[in-house]
Design a protein that fits this description.
590 residues, alpha/beta, 8-stranded parallel β-barrel, 16 strands, binds phosphoenolpyruvate, binds magnesium ion
């Protein structure tokens, strides 16, 4: 280990303390060396190419096994990439370029990939045209192996257990794959607390710090590092004393988590008798077990777009049907709210990657994407409706911004229902259809929406982003991004009032729902159904039991008079101090 200790402060994105050795993933900065060869260097260069192809194939083969373990079924994108790499024409063409043009392997790879890419771009067939991104991916993998580096998806060959990934940014898909390996923590320079990579890290219970500016330049592969996902700190090259302190904290946190787990079956009712329903958010079907183990009473949000992670072929009706119906095998007859595909934005998966969006958060995302791709949408709807025969399933529509979108979506659901009946398929007589309230326009017309939907789920992650015009994944505007802003509180109150007037159930499933410090505001506003990452469930349930709903209502009255986010934060903090006493420290520590 070389270099002095350095402490970085980022955004605590997923709690837990981990120490281990740095592995840099530096894909964004990949430079391609270019040089001409002497005649006697050519054979050596072609051997390097052969070795790089073999290593890339071996890595992708290992990835397939991982995807299989992660419950991702069917032929994967990884398999398609491995096939491309194994294609002898690819090797022959790159080797030919090395020999005839006397250029190094990296340079030859970029030339050949560029040529294949332009050939694909010219074909009329959309499917083939979209294979351009696969060619790019294969080229990237080869370049990384030639440079002896791992890319954004280091699918095997990680060093010993205890590896901590340090990257500029990571896609949510990479986070899923990394968490399935021996990676113990994630550190990124980009990202915010509610970016999907952070959400995935929390769901899979792997400590993460995001928005850690400068860490990539300061860290070296193999450096020792301590990641504190609660405090949001990254201690690079720690001293013995640092390590001892973090070990003690880690021991204490683990003891507390175990104690809390003992209380998981206690009801989530306030000290003055108001009952809440605490549900779990999931990204992968295997997380259903975690929700149940943590004391969750339902699945409040299943983000189905993660079905697309690591696949080449789009899921078909049977894939959807089997995935959703199996959830009931695990969770019995408890309610399961399944959100239709929220593709786009940050969640662009290989199977769908085509035209990049100039402004993804405001582009063809979620319900917009589905309505523009009816085959994709109706295939999922058919799987969803059929799965409703197995238990109380609710369909949730993401990013609704107008009544028209809700109507179009409902028409599609009705048509798919007719079509299924025609095919003799059975499904529940009535499958509730809900609207996610996460776009300001939807909040302003919540009364109209209530007339035509069965329930609401508030997505504060996006609602805060769109209300405050602060990108949820951009660490630079993290200081603006806050659910405590008076505008957010007003929006939440408007939602509760309109939903109650029309007797529509309303749950809240953004990350704010799992934050014990935000909890008194939610209880005081009248929210009674909260859905969150599984790991947030036990501490949240305990916090519910420590509060009184009547006191929370008074807090909300006071907060309604506050004019700035800072005032709301201060009021809430003082409230928790006054009402919880010493227990507040513990709550704030989580
Ligand atoms: C939200 O926006 O709050 C939400 C729950 O959905 P996602 O985080 O997947 O955008
Ligand atoms: Mg959202």
């Amino acid at each position: 280990m070389t270099g002095r200790p350095r402490l970085f402060r980022g955004i605590g994105a997923s709690p837990g303390i981990a120490s281990g050795r740095v592995l840099l993933l530096d894909q964004g900065r990949l430079r391609v060396p270019r040089h001409h060869l002497q005649a006697d260097q050519i054979d050596h260069e072609i051997r390097r190419l052969r070795e790089a192809i073999d290593a890339a194939v071996a890595q992708l083969d290992a990835a397939q096994a991982l995807l299989h373990d992660a419950g991702v079924e069917s032929r994967s994108i990884v398999e398609a990439h491995a096939m491309m790499l194994k294609d002898s024409a690819l090797f022959a063409e790159i080797a030919g370029a090395i020999r005839s043009q006397q250029i190094n392997a990296e340079w030859a790879v970029t030339r050949v990939v560029g040529r294949w890419r332009s050939l694909f771009a010219q074909v009329a067939d959309t499917y083939l045209r979209e294979r351009r991104s696969d060619i790019d991916f294969v080229g990237q993998r080869l370049l990384q192996h030639l440079g002896g580096k791992l890319g954004e998806l280091p699918l095997n060959g990680l060093p010993e257990a205890g590896t901590i990934i340090v990257a500029h940014e990571l896609s949510p898909v990479s986070a899923v794959l990394l968490a399935r390996q021996r990676v113990t923590a994630l550190v990124t320079e980009a990202g915010g607390k509610t970016s999907h990579t952070s959400i995935v890290a929390r769901s899979l219970e792997i400590p993460a710090v995001v928005g850690t500016v400068g860490v990539l330049d300061a860290a070296g592969n193999g450096d020792l590092v301590i990641v504190d996902g609660h405090a949001g700190t990254v201690q690079l090259r720690p001293t013995r004393a640092h390590l001892e302190r973090s070990r003690q904290r880690d021991d204490r946190d683990r003891r507390r988590a175990l104690e809390l787990l003992e209380t998981r079956s206690l009801p989530a009712a306030t000290a003055d008798g108001t009952s809440l329903v605490i549900a779990g958010n999931i990204e992968l079907p295997i997380e259903v077990t975690t929700v149940v183990q943590r004391g969750g009473e339902a699945i409040g949000l299943y983000r189905t777009e993660f079905l697309f992670a690591g696949r080449a072929a789009l899921p078909d009706e049977e894939d959807h049907y089997r995935t959703y119906s199996r959830i009931f095998d695990e969770i019995g007859d408890r309610p399961v709210t399944i959100r239709t595909l929220d593709l786009g934005g940050e969640k662009v998966f290989a199977a769908l990657r085509n035209d990049p969006e100039p402004n993804p958060a405001l582009g063809l995302r979620a319900i917009r994407y589905c309505l523009a791709h009816p085959e994709l949408f109706t295939t999922q709807l058919a799987g969803l409706l059929r799965a409703s025969a197995h238990g109380p399933l609710r369909i949730l529509l993401p990013m609704i911004s107008s009544l028209d979108e809700l109507r179009f979506a409902r028409e599609q659901i009705a048509e798919v229902g007719d079509e299924l009946r025609g095919r003799g398929r059975t499904f529940a007589d009535r499958v509730p259809v809900g609207v996610m309230l996460e776009v300001p326009s939807a909040v302003l017309i919540v009364d109209h929406l209530a007339e035509e939907c069965d329930f609401f789920a508030v997505g504060t992650n996006d609602l805060v982003q769109y209300l405050l015009a602060a990108d949820r994944s951009n660490a630079r505007v993290d200081y603006l991004y806050s659910a405590y802003h008076p505008a957010v509180l007003r929006a939440l109150r408007a939602i509760i009032t309109a939903a109650a007037a029309r007797d529509r159930p309303v749950s809240i499933c953004g990350e704010a729902a799992g934050d014990p410090q935000f909890l008194p505001l939610l209880i005081g506003l009248g929210f009674r159904q909260l859905s969150m990452s599984p790991s947030a469930i036990p501490p949240l349930k305990q916090a519910v039991r420590q509060l009184r709903a009547a006191d929370c209502e008074r807090l909300v009255e006071a907060a309604a008079q506050a004019t700035t986010q800072r005032e709301v934060v201060a009021l809430t903090r003082d409230f928790l101090h006054a009402n919880l006493g010493p227990a507040y420290r513990e709550l704030a520590d989580r």
